[in-house]
Design brief:
TIM Barrel; globular; alpha/beta; 15 helices; about 425 residues; 6-stranded parallel β-sheet; 2 domains; two-stranded parallel sheet
Length: about 425
């Protein structure tokens, strides 16, 4: 078989990496190459951000080291039994691509994952070697995110954290039964053990940095994980519960959700069609409510339908408000920040503006309209000095009134 060119490898391995959603670069330490020292930066001008058709930012060189794999996870297009074109980079080839792309302002850094070749330790060593060459031999100061392998030796994973800004370990599926059924080579307790070890290393590094100026940094952007949505029978309630446990147990920076996508030559145990992408979006909204709006996991579950899934026609915040109408309306001139954050249509920025404005004057409905994006959504749930919703909050058809209108898009619209 003829040897593949770098471009051919890149085509195969960049496409194979598209299923991994956890490639955000937020939270990293600030680094730059001002003064002629090093290459790259993690902020500022000169970064060309691109967006995939589904809206994800792909400003990183997002690629696999290889799509060969000794594992046979049913949902993975790169599984051992899959009939896909295979390719493999050497660590030096990934380094060269990263530097060349960065110098052309195509990327702001590197997101590197891999299939499992030979064994977990060998693969993890290859991933670490890429980061080591970039950092030590080229003084690369851009962003590096390494996807680590929970089955690898903890010391090798620790080395990854010393070079990378962020590390991540995918829990893959929200339930142990789903993981056992669809990824028989993986073990939920082993994954959680790797997450816990990395969490401990991050905490120790932060503590050492407080006491010793030159203490080595360790994954300053933290760690993240990803769950596949719709590949098994897990409901949104199961996924929300799992995400909450992960946040609380391992202080994760982010939990990412990736809607299952049917793959060629799929296993018979997989669904025949993908879940609606809006389901993934609703899970991200629920994640936001837990992280920034003070909602408990149980409250998100209360917003779900009888089948355990979040409604698709309205967002989870509105779904909760409609189920617990006795909590409304709230007086925007007297309510606490926590109460205002529960009002559908009021985001954190709007609430901040309302709290600041009401220090100087009593707010009217027109004032609130100027401080939020959609007063129509807000009106049934608030009281101002000149507005009271009376029976509007209790209307049986309030859901249909506030649900986004379904529109048929025109294929050739100007």
């Amino acid at each position: 078989m003829a040897s593949q060119t770098i471009i051919q490898k890149l085509r195969i391995l960049a496409d194979a990496a598209k299923y991994d959603a956890s490639c955000a670069s937020s939270g990293t330490a600030k680094k730059n190459s001002l003064g002629g020292k090093g290459i790259g930066s993690t902020e500022g001008m000169g970064i060309c951000h691109a967006y995939a058709p589904d809206g994800r930012c792909i400003s990183l060189l997002k690629v696999l080291l290889t799509n060969h794999c000794i594992f046979d996870c049913h949902y993975c297009i790169n599984r051992k039994s899959s009939n896909v074109e295979r390719a493999r980079f050497t660590p030096q080839e990934v380094v060269d691509l990263t530097l060349n792309f960065y110098r052309r302002n195509y990327i702001e850094g590197l997101f590197l994952s891999s299939g499992i070749i030979r064994n977990s330790n060998h693969t993890m060593e290859q991933l670490v070697e890429v980061a080591r060459i970039l950092r030590e031999e080229h003084d690369f100061r851009g962003y590096i995110h390494l996807k680590t392998i929970p089955e690898a030796d903890p010391e090798i994973i620790h080395q990854a954290g010393l070079y990378a800004d962020r590390v991540s370990i995918n829990v893959e599926l929200p339930t142990d039964s789903g993981l056992t059924r669809l990824a028989p080579d993986k073990n939920a307790r082993q994954i959680e053990g790797a997450l816990a070890k990395t969490t401990s290393d991050i905490v120790e590094a932060k503590d050492a940095k407080k006491r010793f100026r030159h203490a080595p940094r360790f994954a300053p952007a933290g760690q993240s994980t990803q769950m596949i949505v719709g590949a098994d029978a897990a409901t949104d309630s199961d996924i929300v519960g799992k995400a909450s446990t992960l946040y609380n147990s391992f202080s994760l920076r982010r939990v990412y959700y990736s809607a299952f996508s049917p793959i060629p030559d799929a296993s018979a145990v997989l669904p025949l069609k993908r879940p609606p992408l809006i389901r993934e979006h609703r899970l991200y909204q629920s994640d936001w409510l837990m992280r920034f709006y003070g909602y408990k996991p149980g409250e998100i579950v209360q917003a779900a339908e009888k089948d355990g899934n979040l409604p698709l026609d309205i967002d989870p915040k509105l779904a909760w408000a409609l189920k617990f109408r006795d909590a409304f309306p709230v007086d925007v001139n007297r309510a606490s920040r926590e109460q205002l954050l529960r009002v559908p249509g009021l985001g954190t920025t709007s609430v901040k503006r309302i709290l600041a404005a009401r220090r100087h004057r009593t707010l009217r409905l027109d004032d609130v309209a100027k401080l939020t994006l959609s007063i129509t959504k807000v009106r049934p749930f608030i009281v101002t000095c000149d507005w009271r919703p009376t029976f509007l909050t209790d209307r049986a058809d309030l859901r249909s009134m506030l649900a986004p209108k379904q529109e048929q898009l025109e294929l050739f619209a100007a």
